[in-house]
Amino acid sequence: MIVEIVDEIAPGQVYAELSHPNSGGICVFVGAVREFTDNEEVKALEFEAYKSMALREMEKIAGEATQKWELNKVVIRHAVGKKEVEEPVVVVGASSAHRDACFEACRYLIDTLKERVPIWKKEIFKNKMVWVSAHP
Amino acid sequence: MEVLLFGIAKDIVGTSSFRFEGGDVVPQSVLELKERLSETFPEFDNLSSLAVAVNSEYADDSKGLNLGDEIAIIPPVSGG
Protein backbone atom coordinates (compact mmCIF):
# COMPACT_ATOMS: atom_id res chain seq x y z
CA MET A 1 0.00 0.00 0.00
CA ILE A 2 1.44 3.38 -0.99
CA VAL A 3 -0.16 6.55 0.40
CA GLU A 4 1.55 9.87 -0.28
CA ILE A 5 1.11 13.61 -0.54
CA VAL A 6 3.67 15.05 -2.94
CA ASP A 7 4.57 18.25 -4.76
CA GLU A 8 4.67 16.66 -8.21
CA ILE A 9 2.88 13.60 -9.55
CA ALA A 10 4.59 11.39 -12.11
CA PRO A 11 1.74 9.14 -13.29
CA GLY A 12 4.14 6.82 -15.14
CA GLN A 13 5.62 5.41 -11.96
CA VAL A 14 2.32 3.93 -10.81
CA TYR A 15 2.48 0.95 -13.16
CA ALA A 16 5.58 -0.42 -11.47
CA GLU A 17 4.07 0.29 -8.06
CA LEU A 18 0.90 -1.67 -8.82
CA SER A 19 2.48 -4.48 -10.79
CA HIS A 20 2.38 -7.83 -8.98
CA PRO A 21 2.89 -11.44 -10.11
CA ASN A 22 -0.70 -12.33 -9.11
CA SER A 23 -2.27 -9.22 -10.63
CA GLY A 24 -3.81 -9.81 -14.04
CA GLY A 25 -5.53 -6.44 -13.81
CA ILE A 26 -4.24 -2.98 -12.97
CA CYS A 27 -6.65 -0.06 -12.86
CA VAL A 28 -5.55 3.55 -12.44
CA PHE A 29 -7.42 6.84 -12.21
CA VAL A 30 -5.57 10.10 -12.80
CA GLY A 31 -7.25 13.39 -11.94
CA ALA A 32 -5.97 16.43 -13.84
CA VAL A 33 -6.59 20.16 -14.04
CA ARG A 34 -9.44 21.00 -16.44
CA GLU A 35 -9.37 24.25 -18.36
CA PHE A 36 -12.99 25.31 -17.89
CA THR A 37 -15.43 25.43 -14.97
CA ASP A 38 -18.93 26.54 -16.03
CA ASN A 39 -17.49 28.11 -19.19
CA GLU A 40 -14.97 30.15 -17.21
CA GLU A 41 -11.32 29.71 -18.00
CA VAL A 42 -9.29 28.27 -15.14
CA LYS A 43 -5.69 29.47 -14.98
CA ALA A 44 -4.59 27.02 -12.29
CA LEU A 45 -5.68 25.09 -9.22
CA GLU A 46 -4.01 25.46 -5.87
CA PHE A 47 -4.19 22.51 -3.46
CA GLU A 48 -3.74 22.64 0.28
CA ALA A 49 -3.76 19.65 2.66
CA TYR A 50 -4.01 19.03 6.39
CA LYS A 51 -1.22 16.64 5.74
CA SER A 52 -1.09 14.46 8.86
CA MET A 53 -4.84 13.85 8.85
CA ALA A 54 -5.05 13.55 5.07
CA LEU A 55 -2.48 10.76 5.13
CA ARG A 56 -4.38 8.99 7.92
CA GLU A 57 -7.65 9.22 5.99
CA MET A 58 -5.97 8.02 2.80
CA GLU A 59 -4.52 5.04 4.70
CA LYS A 60 -7.97 4.24 6.08
CA ILE A 61 -9.50 4.40 2.60
CA ALA A 62 -6.79 2.14 1.16
CA GLY A 63 -7.39 -0.27 4.06
CA GLU A 64 -11.15 -0.25 3.49
CA ALA A 65 -10.62 -1.05 -0.19
CA THR A 66 -8.43 -4.03 0.65
CA GLN A 67 -11.17 -5.28 3.00
CA LYS A 68 -13.86 -4.93 0.35
CA TRP A 69 -11.94 -6.41 -2.58
CA GLU A 70 -9.08 -8.87 -3.04
CA LEU A 71 -6.32 -6.48 -4.00
CA ASN A 72 -2.61 -7.09 -4.32
CA LYS A 73 -1.49 -3.48 -4.43
CA VAL A 74 -3.07 -0.07 -3.76
CA VAL A 75 -1.73 3.42 -4.46
CA ILE A 76 -3.23 6.76 -3.41
CA ARG A 77 -1.13 9.81 -4.19
CA HIS A 78 -2.28 13.43 -4.10
CA ALA A 79 -0.41 16.56 -5.08
CA VAL A 80 -0.34 19.89 -3.24
CA GLY A 81 0.63 23.33 -4.46
CA LYS A 82 -0.21 25.15 -7.67
CA LYS A 83 -1.11 23.03 -10.70
CA GLU A 84 -1.74 24.25 -14.23
CA VAL A 85 -4.12 22.98 -16.91
CA GLU A 86 -3.46 19.33 -17.86
CA GLU A 87 -1.16 18.69 -14.90
CA PRO A 88 -2.00 15.59 -12.83
CA VAL A 89 -3.21 16.28 -9.29
CA VAL A 90 -4.22 12.86 -8.00
CA VAL A 91 -3.46 9.24 -8.87
CA VAL A 92 -5.25 6.27 -7.35
CA GLY A 93 -4.96 2.68 -8.44
CA ALA A 94 -5.32 -0.93 -7.47
CA SER A 95 -4.23 -4.27 -8.86
CA SER A 96 -5.94 -7.62 -8.50
CA ALA A 97 -6.10 -11.10 -10.02
CA HIS A 98 -9.03 -10.14 -12.28
CA ARG A 99 -10.29 -6.81 -13.52
CA ASP A 100 -13.62 -6.47 -11.68
CA ALA A 101 -11.99 -6.00 -8.26
CA CYS A 102 -9.51 -3.35 -9.35
CA PHE A 103 -12.08 -1.40 -11.42
CA GLU A 104 -14.49 -1.24 -8.49
CA ALA A 105 -11.74 -0.50 -5.96
CA CYS A 106 -10.32 2.31 -8.09
CA ARG A 107 -13.70 4.05 -8.20
CA TYR A 108 -14.08 3.62 -4.43
CA LEU A 109 -10.63 5.09 -3.82
CA ILE A 110 -11.23 8.32 -5.74
CA ASP A 111 -14.89 8.77 -4.72
CA THR A 112 -14.11 8.30 -1.02
CA LEU A 113 -11.01 10.49 -1.20
CA LYS A 114 -13.16 13.30 -2.55
CA GLU A 115 -15.69 12.87 0.25
CA ARG A 116 -13.45 12.83 3.28
CA VAL A 117 -9.76 13.51 2.80
CA PRO A 118 -8.93 16.98 4.16
CA ILE A 119 -7.54 18.53 1.00
CA TRP A 120 -8.87 21.74 -0.52
CA LYS A 121 -8.58 23.27 -3.94
CA LYS A 122 -8.86 26.85 -5.00
CA GLU A 123 -9.72 27.64 -8.60
CA ILE A 124 -7.72 30.53 -9.92
CA PHE A 125 -9.55 32.37 -12.69
CA LYS A 126 -8.39 35.47 -14.54
CA ASN A 127 -10.09 37.87 -12.13
CA LYS A 128 -11.01 35.85 -9.04
CA MET A 129 -10.21 32.87 -6.85
CA VAL A 130 -12.79 30.40 -5.55
CA TRP A 131 -12.49 27.64 -2.92
CA VAL A 132 -14.27 24.74 -4.62
CA SER A 133 -17.47 23.45 -2.91
CA ALA A 134 -17.13 25.91 -0.01
CA HIS A 135 -20.54 27.50 -0.61
CA PRO A 136 -23.86 25.88 -1.54
CA MET B 1 -5.19 24.09 22.44
CA GLU B 2 -4.02 24.78 18.93
CA VAL B 3 -6.65 25.42 16.28
CA LEU B 4 -5.58 24.92 12.66
CA LEU B 5 -7.51 26.53 9.82
CA PHE B 6 -7.60 25.39 6.22
CA GLY B 7 -9.07 26.44 2.90
CA ILE B 8 -11.73 29.09 3.11
CA ALA B 9 -11.68 28.90 6.94
CA LYS B 10 -8.16 30.31 6.87
CA ASP B 11 -9.33 33.17 4.64
CA ILE B 12 -12.34 33.93 6.86
CA VAL B 13 -10.32 34.10 10.08
CA GLY B 14 -7.26 35.60 8.42
CA THR B 15 -4.73 33.21 9.96
CA SER B 16 -3.70 29.58 9.55
CA SER B 17 -3.75 28.86 13.31
CA PHE B 18 -4.50 30.31 16.72
CA ARG B 19 -4.29 29.06 20.31
CA PHE B 20 -6.48 28.90 23.38
CA GLU B 21 -4.26 29.10 26.48
CA GLY B 22 -5.07 28.05 30.04
CA GLY B 23 -6.18 31.57 30.99
CA ASP B 24 -8.64 31.82 28.08
CA VAL B 25 -12.27 30.81 28.10
CA VAL B 26 -11.71 27.52 26.29
CA PRO B 27 -14.60 25.94 24.35
CA GLN B 28 -15.64 22.72 26.06
CA SER B 29 -16.97 20.92 23.01
CA VAL B 30 -16.83 20.90 19.23
CA LEU B 31 -20.28 22.51 19.14
CA GLU B 32 -19.15 25.32 21.45
CA LEU B 33 -16.10 25.95 19.28
CA LYS B 34 -18.26 26.10 16.13
CA GLU B 35 -20.69 28.50 17.84
CA ARG B 36 -17.81 30.68 18.96
CA LEU B 37 -16.43 30.82 15.43
CA SER B 38 -19.84 31.67 13.94
CA GLU B 39 -20.39 34.46 16.45
CA THR B 40 -17.03 36.05 15.73
CA PHE B 41 -17.01 35.32 11.99
CA PRO B 42 -20.61 35.10 10.70
CA GLU B 43 -19.30 34.11 7.28
CA PHE B 44 -18.93 30.55 8.60
CA ASP B 45 -22.74 30.27 8.46
CA ASN B 46 -22.61 30.67 4.68
CA LEU B 47 -20.51 27.53 4.10
CA SER B 48 -22.01 24.31 2.71
CA SER B 49 -20.81 22.47 5.81
CA LEU B 50 -18.23 22.74 8.56
CA ALA B 51 -16.43 19.81 10.18
CA VAL B 52 -13.99 19.74 13.05
CA ALA B 53 -11.18 17.27 13.62
CA VAL B 54 -9.75 16.61 17.06
CA ASN B 55 -6.23 15.16 16.98
CA SER B 56 -6.59 14.34 13.27
CA GLU B 57 -9.94 12.50 13.57
CA TYR B 58 -13.34 13.84 12.51
CA ALA B 59 -15.28 14.68 15.66
CA ASP B 60 -19.03 14.99 16.40
CA ASP B 61 -20.45 18.20 17.88
CA SER B 62 -20.68 16.53 21.29
CA LYS B 63 -16.96 15.67 21.44
CA GLY B 64 -15.27 17.27 24.46
CA LEU B 65 -12.13 19.36 24.00
CA ASN B 66 -8.97 19.43 26.11
CA LEU B 67 -6.23 22.04 26.30
CA GLY B 68 -3.65 19.67 24.78
CA ASP B 69 -5.76 18.86 21.70
CA GLU B 70 -4.87 19.78 18.14
CA ILE B 71 -8.07 21.01 16.54
CA ALA B 72 -8.64 21.52 12.83
CA ILE B 73 -11.44 23.54 11.28
CA ILE B 74 -12.45 21.68 8.14
CA PRO B 75 -14.60 23.49 5.57
CA PRO B 76 -16.03 21.40 2.69
CA VAL B 77 -13.19 19.29 1.33
CA SER B 78 -12.45 19.40 -2.40
CA GLY B 79 -9.51 17.14 -3.12
CA GLY B 80 -9.15 15.15 -6.31
TrEMBL record, chain A:
Which reaction(s) does its UniProt entry say it catalyses? Answer: 2 [molybdopterin-synthase sulfur-carrier protein]-C-terminal-Gly-aminoethanethioate + cyclic pyranopterin phosphate + H2O = molybdopterin + 2 [molybdopterin-synthase sulfur-carrier protein]-C-terminal Gly-Gly + 2 H(+)
Q: What is its EC number?
A: 2.8.1.12
Q: Which UniProt keywords apply?
A: Molybdenum cofactor biosynthesis
EC class, as a word, reads: transferase
Biological pathway: Cofactor biosynthesis; molybdopterin biosynthesis
Give the matching InterPro entries: MoaE_sf (IPR036563), Mopterin_biosynth_MoaE (IPR003448)
State the CDD domains in the record: MoaE
Electron transport among the record's keywords?
no
Question: SUPFAM superfamilies attached here?
Answer: Molybdopterin synthase subunit MoaE
Superkingdom of the source species: Bacteria
How does this chain assemble? Heterotetramer of 2 MoaD subunits and 2 MoaE subunits. Also stable as homodimer. The enzyme changes between these two forms during catalysis.
**Annotated family:** Belongs to the MoaE family.
Name of the protein in question: Molybdopterin synthase catalytic subunit
The protein's organism comes out as: Zobellia uliginosa
UniProtKB/TrEMBL annotation, chain B:
Q: Does the keyword Disulfide bond apply?
A: no
Protein's name according to its UniProt entry:
Molybdopterin synthase sulfur carrier subunit
Q: Which organism is it from?
A: Zobellia uliginosa
Sorted alphabetically, the keyword list is: Nucleotide-binding
Q: Which family does it belong to?
A: Belongs to the MoaD family.
* UniProt keyword annotation of Nucleotide-binding present: yes
Query: InterPro entries attached here?
Result: Beta-grasp_dom_sf, MOCS2A, Mopterin_synth/thiamin_S_b, ThiS/MoaD-like
